[in-house]
Amino acid sequence: MGEAKYVEIAQEIESKIDIGHYAEGDKLPAHRALADELNTTPMTIAKAYGLLSEKGRIESFVGRGSFVKAKSQLKQAIQSQLDDREWNFSILQPCYAEHVETLHAHLQHSFAKLTKPALYGYIEDSGLISHKAAGMQWMHLQGVTVRSPEQVLLTNGAQHALSILIELYSKPGDYIAVDEWTYPGLLSIVSLLGRKVAGVAMDDQGMIPEALVDIYHRHKPAMVILLPSHQNPTTITLSQQRREQLAEIVQRYPLWLVEDDIYSFLNTHPTQAMTNLVPEKSFCIHSLSKAISPGLRCGYIKAPQSQIDRLSAFIRATIWLPSPLMFEVASNLIESNQAVEMAEAQRQIACRRQRVARKQFADQVFHAQDSSYHLWLQLPDGWQADSFTLTAKERGLLVSSGNYFYTGSDETSSIRLSLMAITDDAALETGLTALSSLLNAKIDKN
Ligand SMILES: Cc1ncc(COP(=O)(O)O)c(C=O)c1O
Question: What SMART domains is this protein classified in (predicted)?
Answer without folding.
Answer: HTH_GNTR (SM00345)
